Amino acid sequence: MKGKILVVDDEETTRRSLADILRLEGAQVKTAAGGEVAVETLQQETFDLILLDLKMPGMDGLDVLRIANKVTPDTQVILLTAHGSLESAIAALRLGAHDYLLKPASPTQILRSVNSGLARRAEQLRKRNLLEQLEASIQQLKDISQGQVDETSSGVVEIASGVVINYNRRQVEYGDLQVTLTPTEGKLLKVLLENRKRVFSHRELVLLVQGYETSDWEAPEVLRPLISRLRRKLSVFPQGEKWIANVRGTGYVFE
Fold first, then answer.
1. Is the peptide bond between 225 and the residue preceding it cis, with omega within 30 degrees of 0?
2. pLDDT digits (tens, 9 = 90+) for 170-227
3. CA-CA to 169 of 20 to 30 Å: which in 135, 186, 217, 238?
4. How many domains, in total, are found in the chain?
5. Which domain holds residue 14?
6. pTM of this prediction?
7. Residue 49 lies in a domain
8. Which residues of 217-230 are buried (b: 16+ CB within 10 A; e: fewer)?
9. Distance in angstroms (rounded) separating the CA atoms of residues 62 and 40
10. How far apart are CA 72 and CA 194, in angstroms?
11. What are the helix and strand counts (H, E) for the chain?
């Protein structure tokens, strides 16, 4: 099993047991003792799958699921509960949960559901990559037919002296150094690059990059982990850590 998994449960014994089962299968596992800790972790790191207890003090599983859908929509979520009901199962599935298991679930049940969730995520990402490549190819054909082949339509744009981004490969390149971006990171950088010096609000960027509306308080929470990951990748290039600047209380600008 290859995957990065977050286990969220307020019961230490259950949390440790689930983590041990997954690690024995080769997964990379982190744990969180409650909903609030889980949300903080999701804002800092990306996971392939979350094993999430439904009933927890404070922020419960459905609350975490709602936030995870916005912060990291590709992550698969499996809800676990010792107090199953048809209503809670329907609510979880309507919110996009991959599966809903009753405690105590056997290791076989857990691994079957986890493997299914990881396979589903891999297939979704594969289809998205193929669609993005198809869209890029169609746009290039349109540009060629209209006689508009320039640096941007060829897929290569200079970011700074000697540093370029290849949109088709989703790579930032500097000599022999190459950094690969996720589709979302590539889209975010493209929006910022095409509008250098323009300050975007958090809500504008979420709408342009993720494709959905958010409230004033939700938008920074959705955007912050994405900006953080992109900055870390760009920091390997000369002055790269300074390219995306935070405009306090407003949003971000590419300088």
1. no
2. 899 998 899 999 888 889 999 998 898 899 999 899 888 888 888 888 888 888 889 9
3. 238
4. 2
5. 4-123
6. 0.56
7. yes
8. ebbbbbbebbbebb
9. 16
10. 25
11. 8, 12
Q: Quickly list DSSP for 107-149.
A: HHHHHHHHHHHHHHHHHHHHHHHHHHHHHHHHHHHHHHHTT--
Question: Could you tell me if 111 and 15 lie in one domain?
Answer: yes
Neighbouring C-beta atoms of residue 30, cutoff 10 Å? 15
CATH number for the domain spanning 108: value is 3.40.50.2300
Alpha helices in the chain (DSSP H): 12-24, 35-44, 61-71, 86-94, 107-145, 183-193, 202-210, 218-234
- Same domain membership, residue 66 and residue 111: yes
Per the domain annotation, does 148 fall within a domain?
no
Mean residue pLDDT across the chain = 86
Confirm if 97 and 78 have CB atoms less than 8 A apart.
yes
Pairing outcome for strands 171-174 and 163-166: antiparallel
C-alpha distance from residue 220 to each of 69, 202, 224 (Å): 15, 6, 6
Are the CB atoms for 96 and 57 separated by under 8 Å?
no
Amino acid type, 9: D
3-class DSSP state for residue 248? coil
Q: Is residue 128 part of a domain?
A: no
For 8-45, write each residue's pLDDT tens digit.
999 999 999 999 999 999 999 999 999 999 999 988 88
In a domain, 16, yes or no: yes
Domain holding 186: CATH number?
1.10.10.10
Q: In whole angstroms, how far apart are CA 21 and each of 37, 51, 81, 120, 199? A: 22, 12, 18, 20, 47
SS3 (DSSP) at 59: coil
